[in-house]
Each structure stands twice: as C-alpha cells, then as structure tokens.
Amino acid sequence: MTLEAFLIAGEPVTTSETFKAVDPSLGHTIDPPFAVSDESHVERACIAAAAAFEAFAEAPIETRARLLETIADEIEGIGDALIVRAMAETGLPRPRLEGERGRTTGQLRMFAAVVREGGWQDIRIDSALPDRQPLPRPDLRMIKRPLGPVAVFGASNFPLAFSVAGGDTASALAAGCPVVIKGHPAHPGLSAMVGGAIAKAVAAVGLPAGVFSLLAGPSNALGSALVLDPRIAAVGFTGSRQGGLALVELAARRPVPIPVYAEMSSVNPVILFPAALAARAEALAAGYVGSLTFSAGQLCTNPGLVFAVDGPGLARFSESAANALAAAGPATMLTPGIAKAFRTGVAKLTGSSGVTELARGAAPAGECQSQASLFTISAPDFIAQAEVREEVFGHTSLVVRCADQAELCAALAVLEGQLTVTLQIDPDDGPAARALMPLLVQKAGRLLANGWPTGVEVAPAMVHGGPFPATSDGRSTSVGWLAIDRFLRPVCYQNMPAALLPPALAGDGAGSWRLVDGHRVAA
Amino acid sequence: MTLEAFLIAGEPVTTSETFKAVDPSLGHTIDPPFAVSDESHVERACIAAAAAFEAFAEAPIETRARLLETIADEIEGIGDALIVRAMAETGLPRPRLEGERGRTTGQLRMFAAVVREGGWQDIRIDSALPDRQPLPRPDLRMIKRPLGPVAVFGASNFPLAFSVAGGDTASALAAGCPVVIKGHPAHPGLSAMVGGAIAKAVAAVGLPAGVFSLLAGPSNALGSALVLDPRIAAVGFTGSRQGGLALVELAARRPVPIPVYAEMSSVNPVILFPAALAARAEALAAGYVGSLTFSAGQLCTNPGLVFAVDGPGLARFSESAANALAAAGPATMLTPGIAKAFRTGVAKLTGSSGVTELARGAAPAGECQSQASLFTISAPDFIAQAEVREEVFGHTSLVVRCADQAELCAALAVLEGQLTVTLQIDPDDGPAARALMPLLVQKAGRLLANGWPTGVEVAPAMVHGGPFPATSDGRSTSVGWLAIDRFLRPVCYQNMPAALLPPALAGDGAGSWRLVDGHRVAA
Predict the structure, then answer these.
(1) What is the pLDDT of residue A2?
(2) Which end of chain A has the smaller Cβ count within 10 Å, N or C?
(3) Is B142's CB within 8 Å of A259's CB?
(4) Membrane spanning segments where (chains A, B) (predicted)?
C-alpha cells in the first residue's frame, strides 16, 4: 500500500516512486511507503496556489481567522495517532511531542487573534486637501497586502511547531498567502496527517483548495524547483546554514528575485558575569546542562557557547556542569544524518587547537544515538579559530575562559549574528553588563537575563530571528506576532473611488487601528 | 583651486585626482574641480560611521529629530547659491529646483515628526505571568532598533530630494543609522553644499561627526567598495535597473549579505477606460502629455505606457496627445549619458515590430538635448515583444491599442512590477475597473485614479515602491513615513533588568504607542 504523502490543492496524489520514514530509535525504515513529488507536482501545486491567491487575498479577514482555528481543531481531532506516529518518526519522547502539539495549535489560534486584531494591516489614511497651495493633496490610503504564494520548508527538529502547520505556514496563511509546503522527509507520515488536517480546514471554511498543497520527497531538487517556480513570492525555511544559503542563492538568481526567510545557524552565547557566578555557580551549571541536553540539544536556541572571566567561580561552574553532563544518557537524534553531522562537528571541535574536554555523557548505542559533550577553550584560541564558533547541532557546548573583561569583550566581538544572547547577572554585575549591551544588541535578535535561551515564547513581543547567519534576514522573526510582517507588502491607493478600495480602506477605516493624517486612531 | 567635494566625518578631504561637473545646458565642464574619493576614503568613512553608530543609536530620539530639522535649516541657509549651482549642474529650471528644495526640507522636517511620533519603534510589552502552568511566561519587551551604517547613492534626477539630503538619507538618519553617501557625479557642487549643511547640523546637535560622510567621484568602483565594506548594514539607491541590480548582486555576495533598497525601473501604465475616454478624451490627452513631458520625462513615475480598448475615443485621445506633444520643445537632459541612453532607447522602440509614430516634439539642438516622442502599438505586438515594455528614461511613451477588454487584460498581465498604475475612469467604468483590480494590485505599489503618476506626495500613507523590478524589495517604500522601516530591525529583551533596557522599554512604555499584552495602548 502507498499512503499518499502529499496533496495538491486538497487532492491526494499517488506516484510509482515512493520513500519511507526511518524510525531513529529502531534504526530501520517503517511502513507505509509514501509517494514522492516531482517537478511536475511542484508546478501543479504552484499553479493552484496562484489561482487561489486572489480569492484568498480578497476573502474576509474573519475567514482567514476561522481557517487558522479550524486547522488547530482538525489537528487536535487526529488524536493520539498523531503523537504515536510522531514518536516513531522522530525519536522524540511523548511529553515533548504533546507539548509541541499544544504549542502548534496555540500558535495557529494566536495568529487567528492577530488577524482579527488587524494592526498588521497598518492602515493609513491621508485626507485630501483640495485647497492646499501650490497643489491640492490627493486622498491617500495605505494597507498591507499579502505578497503571494509562499513556499515553506518543514524543519526536522520541531516536527509540528516548525513543520507543515508550523509558524511559517500559520503566519503566511494569516497574511493571506497560499502555502506550498515541502514536508521534511524525516516525518512524512506526520506531514501527511497534518497536511490532511489543513486541507480539510481549507474546504470547511469554503476557500479554494489551492490555498494549501503539501509536497514530499527526499531530494533537494524538489525544494529547488519550488523556490524557482515563478508563482512563488516568498520562502520560509528553518534548518541548516548550508540549506538556507542554498535557497537564498537560488531565490536571488530568479528572473524575479524573492525574499527568503531562512532561520539557519546560531550558537546562542551565554555570558556568566562575576557576581552571578560567585553567588550561584552550581545552580547555573544545573540550568545550563538542562538547557543544553533538552531534546539532545537539537534546538535552534541551544546554548552552544559559554563565556566567563576565569577564576574560582568559573571553576566551580565547570566542575558542576561536567558532573551533570557526565550523567546525561545517550540520546536518539532525529535522523541518521543529523547524528552523523553531530559526530563530525564534535570531532572537528576536538581537533581544534586548545580545545579540551570537560565531560562526555554516556556512550551511545547505534548509529542514531549520540553522546553529550562539554569542552573548554581559552579566549585567545577561541578568537584565533573561526571553526570553533560554528554551530554544532546537538548537545555539545564550549566554555570560553577569558582572562579579564577586556578579553571577554574581544571574544564576544568576533561572534557572528545570533538568535539569542543570554546574560547571567546579579545586581553587582550591572555596570559590566551595561558596558557590553551596545555590542550584544548588535549580535542577536533576543537578549535574555537569568534564564536559558531554549523555550521560545509564542507571543506579541517575541523575536526569533537575528543578524546573519542566525537568519538570512535580520529584519524578521519566525515566531510571534511580528512573523506575519514577512509576508506583506504596502499598497497605496490615491483618489480611488470607494467601490475600488479594499473594504478595510473604504469609509473612515473604523474598526481597525489606523494612522489618520499622521495621528493614530483607536479601532 | 580644488573645492573639497567630500567630507569624512565632517572633515573636508583634498586629493590630487579631481573631476568636474558638466553644465548640460552649455555642454561643457564647469569649475571648480572636485576631489575624487578612493577606496581608502570609503574605508575611513565607514570606520567613522561604525564608530559613531552606538552613540547615535543610543542618543535621545529628540536629538535625531533636531538633527533632521537642523539639516533643513542649514540647507535653507545656503540661500540662492544652492539653486544657481543646481541649475548649472542639472539643466533643470529654477521653479522646479526651488520646488524640490521645499520638498527636501519638508521631507526632513516630516521625518523629524515621524521620529517624535515614535510609532515606528513598534514597542511591544508582554507582562510576565509567573503563575502560568506548566511554565511561567517571562517578561518580554520588543523595540525596533537601527540596522547600522547605511550606504546611500545620490540620484541624478532629483538632485536634492533623492540625493545627499534626500529621502534615503533622511529616513536612515531618522532610524538612527549613520549615513555614508556616494554623491552623484553629475552634481558634485550641489552635493558638496548639501553635505556641508549636514555636517554642520551633526556638529550643532552634538553628535559624533562619523554620523555623516559624503564621498564623490565618477567611478562605479567607488560605489562597489562602499557596498562591500563590512561595516555597511544596508543600501539605499535610486537609479537605473542595471545600476540597482549590480548593487543587489554585490550585496548578496558579501560574507554577510545586506538588504539593498534599489528603486530602479517603472513604466507606469495608465489605463483609459471606455466611459472616461468617451467623456473627456481631449482633457485626458492634455493631462497625459503634461505629465509625460514634465522635466523631460526624467521621473521614475513618468507615464510610459497607455492602454485602452481601440475605438473612436482612443482615436480622439491619440490625435489630441499627438498634437500636444508635437508642440513640445526640445529639452535639456540631466547629463550627456542620460540623453544618449534616451536616444538609444527610443531607437530600439522604433525598431520594434508594429511600433508606429504618433508624434515627435521639436528637434533638439546639441548632444544634451532630446526630443519628446509618442508611439503606438497593437496589444498582440506589445505582448509578443518584451523590449517594448522596458523603461526608456525620458519623455517618450507608447499607446497600446487593445481589441477588447480581454486583450487589455492580457496586455496588462505581461507587465513587470511597477511603481504606479493609473486608472482613468468614470462611474460607468466601475465594473470593468473592479474586474482588473486584483491583477493591478499585484503589479504596483501605488494605484491611482483620475490623476497622473508624476508628483509623489511625501505623506504618511505614500508608497513609492513596488514589485520587482520597480524596486529590488517590493516590501518597501523610499518615500513617506514607511521609508524609515527599511532601516530597522526588531530586538526582544526577556526578563531584562530595567537598567539594561533601552529607556523607551523601561517602565510601562508610556509616552509611546505600544502593544501591551496584545492590546494597543495610546501614547
């Protein structure tokens, strides 16, 4: 039997070529086989998306909100089968996946609220001034509109929250953009279940089926064809630096270049300030190792670097962290490829000059398992070698020992752009932290104090983005309310009769927050 | 004598290599010679900008607003010498340049008001929920911050409003980004005067001199070096498609790619609907030729294409337009290069299949003068030949005759992205216009009715941008309040002590419009 892994405009498609998921816990492929999409399917899905765009863009905002809510309902309606299949395809434990399902449906419902709130439209009305000298001022009205069909790439590490019905899909649909998603080949069964839920929701709210298509298959060529399709207007991606940069390059080469929002690479530095270290080195170590080893470190915000001025506090921290990490069991990684890349990355790190081991976790059993590890390096060695600053995706981290505050600052200055920077500070650390803030704010999209970078709140003020290479577009976030802005463009209407205006711009714009003649007016 | 054409961090620089402006009315170079910047000057200017960034970004918003107002005052303080020099360097008439000076200083003062209004910061505060289950919610605060030093390229056709102190510079400074501008080599004297005014204003409000530098010289290598400098965080450009695309490509090739906001190419289609044509063909023709020939058509929003269903109305329009255009005198173009490119573009148009001449204006005298022209083509020939859809910068335009509404729609569908689309409509044209709106809104950043696209209001709701190739980034505008958004990025602070927060985020954010726990709150 072939399960139809993919859907074009709501219709399941079968093909002769198939592929199977791998159960990383068991180390072998699992049934059923799934249909493999090819370039002709990409074209059909994009044609359907383009054909659906107008109707979707012009549909009432309430329809978009109900679509998002109905998707959440349909996902919940799948029940435990979703979790069971997700466990088999990802090796992630049940509580983590149940939590992620809640995050995913919560995110969809949040974007329904965002859509209804309407502030994202950024409505602006400048009244006509017919008597202005030397020339009259026309009536000008501005609204943000959807860009067009969006290509989304499912990520492996959040098989629900950053995959078929994840943040990119939710925010693109919220913006009024049809979505063509390339499901991650590591979880085709999960993708098919969630894709089916979305297709049902699209039909239930009466939108054209082309608003959503799901493609699937193990080849990179599929993703390339999707990015190159002339109907695609933007791309959302979460994954490796190499993968993200390849999409950026493809998109730039198109006859009509399009924006790519690729969330790619971050090592998430944590800075331990002296007073915090003196007061609570052991508690910091416990929190750090907990954050580092959660989900085998397969998180974009995993704390891969720790910086501190060397001394007794850092020695206590390092010893506690080493003890905690040594007790960490081996972990099943998401795919054999990720496990292999992790081993390669750790080997590269240990082969670098001045890197010494603080601890290793329990030894792994089998190709898909991996061993947590913790290393240390001096700041001069860290500064001298760019490769020790690269992300190793998984549960490994590097403690950078700095001789003094100046060396700490120098080590931070060589960092690339990051999703997060974490400060562990006590009140006495205030002046030292303040001195670093202007540098740190240029390095990251989120700065946090006395917490750990893992755990990204889905909220109005969240920024899950950051300067290159954390993302390909440091002006954006892929989580939180602001994620919708990625898929919008401003359009101005000048002296346009009301019958030709979008409904939200006709009349005085009441019902939405808006800027009228340069003054903000409440809904 | 060498006039110092350029300034690095407020200091005039002299060099042995010099260049001179050309007076396009007289057809020869004019004194004085100006210093030519080289790559070492680019580096010095960018180092100064990067060094000034922190102080500028952290300076009170009121300082930014006063900077913008002081620049406007200083420009006005130059007095008539500015206009006299501008006339000599551009061949543009005095009233046009005086109007443009008013637009430029008005724009600077508008951005001062935008800065003070503060909505661009998009402040968001999510209160901590310490008792939330299963995990507490942290305190999250978001603000938009400046990207970093911005490279601006002065345009030739608006030597004040899109040049040294033009919209790109004003909006970048408003965002808190230092500016390094490459002045357009066609007006070095004007650039030096305006650059001096900005440098004086920077000093007057007590900001570091590195906030502004002006480079100058005739070579493209200078601009390339500027875009490639690692300290530059974004680029603003108005000019040719070829020039803009070259900068986009350079920026994408950097180790750290950066956004390029290039406003490049637009033919600004005008659609004459049947009822409007029947009622007022002659008045439409007069308005059209006036818009087409203003400033010798050297405007980004020049109406280069007219579409209508063929018939008696279009015949009346074409005859009236031909008569009006035949009476247009020759015009001095901005530079010999622009005049030559215009002749080449018109020759290419006349060499295309099915293009016939409706009228030519008076014959030009001399290399810098050009002749207005008007052509017509059938919709099938228009659809078959991509080259007739390319922008010819100057006072020439093409009337596309369509057999019926379906052919009109097909001809519009092949258009590339545009800055503007204009509809000439009477009430009876409503249904036909409504049917086209979904297509038109995908083609342009501004849709206007019963006016002409030239004349871009500097206002809160203006969009002077559009899908590629109108601009390299269809999510942006280079004119109006929204232009500031191009130079900002969001930063989130999580559980950050008040002493480490930007002042606008400490406390409850009062004083600014903001989103608190998902609800908008007045200043």
Answers:
(1) 47
(2) N
(3) no
(4) none
**Cα diameter, chain B:** 81
Total CB pairs under 8 A between chain A and B: 227
Q: Is the CB of B460 less than 8 angstroms away from the CB of A517?
A: yes
Q: What is the CATH superfamily name and number for domain A25-264+475-487?
A: Aldehyde Dehydrogenase; Chain A, domain 1 (3.40.605.10)
Mean pLDDT of chain A: 96
Residues B129, B136: Cα–Cα separation, whole Å: 6
Query: Pairing state of beta strands B234-238 and B150-153?
Result: parallel
Task: Search chain B and give the residue with CA nearest A517.
Answer: B460
* Cα B11 from chain centroid (whole Å): 28
Give pLDDT, residue A508: 78
Of B256, B438, B447, the CB nearest to A58: B438
Query: Mean pLDDT, to the nearest integer, of A52-65?
Result: 97
Q: In this structure, what token pair is assigned to residue A328?
A: 């960490």
Among 3.10.20.30, 3.40.605.10, 3.30.70.20, 3.20.20.70, name the CATH number for the domain at B6-121+146-264+475-486. 3.40.605.10
Which residues of chain A does B120 touch, with a Cβ-Cβ cutoff of 8 Å? Answer: none
Q: For residues A452 and B498, is the Cβ–Cβ distance under 8 A?
A: no
The answer to whether the Cβ–Cβ distance between B423 and A500 falls below 8 Å is yes
Question: Scanning the structure block, which residue is given the tokens 């974007």?
Answer: A111
Chain A residues closer than 8 Å to B138 by CB: 448, 451, 457
Task: Please confirm, yes or no, whether A17 is among the known catalytic residues.
Answer: no
Looking at beta carbons, which residues of chain B come within 8 Å of A138? Answer: 448, 451, 457
Tokens at B521, concatenated: 């709150």
The contacts of residue B230 (CB under 8 Å, 6+ apart) are B254, B255, B256
DSSP B364: P
B27 phi and psi, to 5 degrees? Answer: 80, 15
Q: Which residues of A touch B500 (CB under 8 A)?
A: 423, 430, 433-434, 437, 449
Q: Taking Cα atoms as reference points, which of A47, A72, A66 lies closest to residue A160?
A: A72
Interface mutation vs chain B, best among A494, A512, A516, most B CBs within 10 Å:
A494
Q: Give the pLDDT band (50/70/90) at residue A254.
A: very high
In A, which residues are within 8 Å of B261 by CB distance? Answer: none
CA distance B308 to B304: 14
Residue of B nearest to A423 (CA): B496
pLDDT attached to residue B508: 78
Residue B1 — very low, low, confident or very high, per pLDDT cuts 50/70/90? very low
User: Quick one: pLDDT band at residue A1, thresholds 50, 70, 90?
Assistant: very low
> Alpha helices, DSSP H only, in A294-427?
312-326, 336-350, 379-384, 405-413
- Beta-strand ranges (E) seen in B227-372 are 234-238, 260-263, 269-272, 305-309, 331-332, 356-360, 369-370
| ipTM metric | 0.97
Token output for B251: 């920026």
Distance from CA of B82 to the nearest CA of A (A): 22
Check whether B26 has a pLDDT greater than 50. yes
Q: What amino acid occupies position B98?
A: E
Q: Is A141 in Cβ contact with B500 (below 8 Å)?
A: no
Minimal CA–CA distance to B168: which of B152, B149, B185? B152
Write the class of the CATH domain B269-449: alpha beta
Task: Compute the average pLDDT of residues A423-452.
Answer: 97
Cβ separation A148–B442 shorter than 8 A: yes
| Active-site option among A4, A69, A89, A300 | A300
Question: A177 an active-site residue?
Answer: no
Q: Pairing relation of β-strands B11-13 and B6-8?
A: antiparallel
Nearest-by-CA chain B residue for A102 = B134
Contact between chains at A259 and B475 (C-beta distance less than 8 A): yes
Closest alpha carbon to A127 in A115, A116, A140:
A140
CA distance B41 to B46: 8
